[in-house]
């Protein structure tokens, strides 16, 4: 197999484009089942009796699943191939979405766990697949799938309340999103037929290669902390921004579309970040500026809340750009596909453990204080940490070149 193509010999434009389309369709499945929940938290709480802390825990469960599942994904991927594992993940994701929508609190939690497990597989494997199949245009394709992920996340937020109003039930509004992974599973299955030789005989390898463990690399930890803080700010925003806006007098449907704007702006910002990254080796300045933009947005919400839509858009610029950068660093800071898979698993394990604390802490803080101001300060503090860690992770170094320590 070539480093840039999809097949071992004679890849046609049709197979390359179809393979890329399959990757992008899977990417589109990785956020709507989560982002659709935020605008519906009021309805979910009223129906289930969960308070703000409980709803924060509900929002954090997928992140816990990401953290638990991510470190182990490279092993079955090495044994069975990435194709089969992603196909299974799409089936688990669709089933989880449907189970979550069944009446009863138990199904809500069980389905949410399945959703987190299914998404975790795509989170880890897509960056490694892009590294393997598009090594010569890594930042461009990373920007594409990151932007698709962000755009789909925005649709999840924006359509949540309208779907709940149209169907009269938040459960049905969430169940609708099972259609997307079902479609992705069908296309991904066809990818195995259209792109010969890839599914079983192009695994992602089980080891990071010669040398020390990824967990002993300083560069790997810098990427991990950056990814974790980027995810923390994102999930704090998508989980609680509608509730923060509700406290400012914004109605639920409008707040949902503001959350949609926050994420859709991220598409343009992500593509812009892709252009800015280009072939540059040192990306520290981009990371520092991205975090600073989010600090400005949070300060705006605190000081000029009547312009909350503007500040949501500004925050979206930071979120979209930093998500693309975080995904790109998995490939840019490693030398082999195996290392990329392991760094992706490590960063998403520790990073999502960090990120899951955000929604829970925010809900608990609000329950205690009755105001969202401390939560906004928390987001700003995470953004500052994101700039600092990104400044180190963005330097032109590789995981297995760094000294141990």
Structural notes for this entry:
The protein is globular and about 50 Å long. With 405 residues, it is an all-alpha fold. The protein has 16 helices and no strands. Helix content is 76%, strand content 0%. The longest helix has 33 residues, at 337-369. It has a single domain (13-401), classed as Up-down Bundle (Growth Hormone, Chain: A), CATH 1.20.1250.20. It has helices spanning 13-27, 32-35, 41-48, 52-69, 74-80, 82-100, 105-133, 138-167, 170-175, 179-194, 218-247, 252-277, 284-303, 308-332, 337-369, 373-393. Helix 8 (138-167) packs across helix 14. It starts with 12 loop residues before the first helix and ends in a 12-residue tail after the last helix.
| Count of discrete alpha- or pi-helical segments spanning 4 or more residues | 16
Number of DSSP-assigned strands: 0
Q: Tell me the CATH superfamily.
A: MFS general substrate transporter like domains
User: What oligomeric state do the depicted chains represent?
Assistant: single chain
Query: Low-confidence stretches at least 5 residues in length (pLDDT < 50)?
Result: 1-10, 205-210
Helicity level: over 70%
Quickly give the structural class. Answer: mainly alpha
Number of domains: 1
CATH first level? Mainly Alpha
Main pleated-sheet profile: none
The shape is globular
- In N-to-C order, the SSE pattern is HHHHHHHHHHHHHHHH
Instruction: Could you tell me the CATH topology label.
Output: Growth Hormone, Chain: A
Q: Kindly report the average pLDDT value.
A: 86
